[in-house]
Amino acid sequence: MSTPLAVDLAIACARLTRLAARLHGEPHGVGRALATLDQFGPMSVGAFAMVDNTSQPTVTKLFQRLEAEGVVERRPDPDDRRSSLIGLTDAGRERLDTLRQNMAAGLDPALDGLDDDQLQTLRRAAVIIRDLADELSPLDRPQAGGTAVR
After folding, report:
1. How far is CA 144 from the centre of its chain?
2. What is the pTM of this model?
3. Is residue 37 part of a domain?
4. What DSSP state is assigned to residue 138?
5. Does 102 reside within a domain?
6. In total, how many domains does the chain have?
């Protein structure tokens, strides 16, 4: 059973995520992929697909494009020589930083219109939302060898 607060929170976060993707100027999947690899570290295509709730063929195609752009690289899996892990390159980290700066620059004008109480409320809410996400994250956190826990 979902509560109105849970539904409102999910909708607001989804809308803000879509807005942020438009603000950073990259396809949504690119920013999400770079941020996921930054959060979890190198992972297999299968683990990424589980964490991102995306099909493996879609992830494979995305990573091939990102690898050609030099923002991700394929590395041997130290636990399984037959497999590889995908991780960020230095260029990938720089691109993610740029995406995040572009998002912030796009959101800043709206934040500038808020009063101090509203800004403080948003700061507290951001911490609470981050903590909730951390609490829920173990459900899809990849384990060693690039497999995700469900």
Report:
1. 19
2. 0.80
3. yes
4. G
5. yes
6. 1
**Residues shown for the chain:** 150
At 28, phi and psi to the nearest 5?
A: -55, -40
Do the Cβ atoms of 87 and 72 come closer than 8 Å? yes
Distance CA 105, CA 143 (A): 35
Residue type, 82: R
* DSSP codes, 113-126: TS-HHHHHHHHHHH
User: What is the amino acid identity at position 132?
Assistant: L
Tokens of 125: 């809410």
- For residue 57, being part of any structural domain is answered with yes
**Residue corresponding to tokens 């923002």:** 71
pLDDT in tens, 43-100: 999 999 998 889 999 999 999 999 999 999 999 999 888 889 999 999 999 999 999 9
Amino acid at 31: G
Instruction: Please calculate the CA angle 68-74-75 and round it to the nearest 5 degrees.
Output: 155
DSSP output for 10-50? HHHHHHHHHHHHHHHTS-HHHHHHHHHHHHH-SB-HHHHHH
